[in-house]
Amino acid sequence: MDAIDGQGFDGPIKWDVLTIGYLSRNKFWGESSDKGYRSPRCTCTLIRTNGRTIIVDPSCPPEEMLQVLDQRTGLKAEQITDVFLTHFHGDHRYGIEAFPHAKWFMPEREIEHCRGQVPAESPESLLLTKLIPVDRSLMPGIEILPTPGHSKGHGSLVFACEGLTVVVAGDAAMTKDFYLARDYYFNTTDPEAAVKSIDGIARIADIIVPGHDNYFMNKRS
Ligand SMILES: [Zn+2]
Ligand SMILES: [Zn+2]
Fold this sequence. Notes:
This protein has about 220 residues and is of the alpha/beta class. The protein has 5 helices and 12 strands. It is globular and about 40 Å long. One zinc ion binds near residues 42, 91, 92, 171 and 212.
């Protein structure tokens, strides 16, 4: 990941947070992990580079997703070339159908793992067949950092912007509080791997875009 220094691709990267996420339950607010207090929403990010316009984790129902896209960027559905899912949880792919003309990507390990988990011929299984597996790189200038733990094949995006390394961490970092405490969410598949993934992000990130919170600055460890 040290190789990511802004070299090797043509244009600068521009990125915007489309929706600031929040959790159904947040133990750092004194809430119990045993029940949901609200419907969750994930943080959705737009990345623009080299003629590609990428939605990461489409967070709202399709119609609202397009409204938010317009409100935050003035862009239309047809201008979105790619969608990337950090992992397969429902709240991170809620609005994917708003972008039928885009290419849809998810980390290869997450696709492989989920194939064995979803019922045959379910909507989820159909969606999995439409997702293009990606491994280390999404496109020039945007790398994929494997961040397993929250889910088996979870992946974060890493890119350079204005001399800083940005990590769009998805649920590898739930919120700033979870991140600072090196803590993981109640539904985490592999807690040990989740903590290692947080440490991995902490080593390389200057800016972290968490799965369910606004972005924040990081002092590399
Ligand atoms: Zn999740
Ligand atoms: Zn989430």
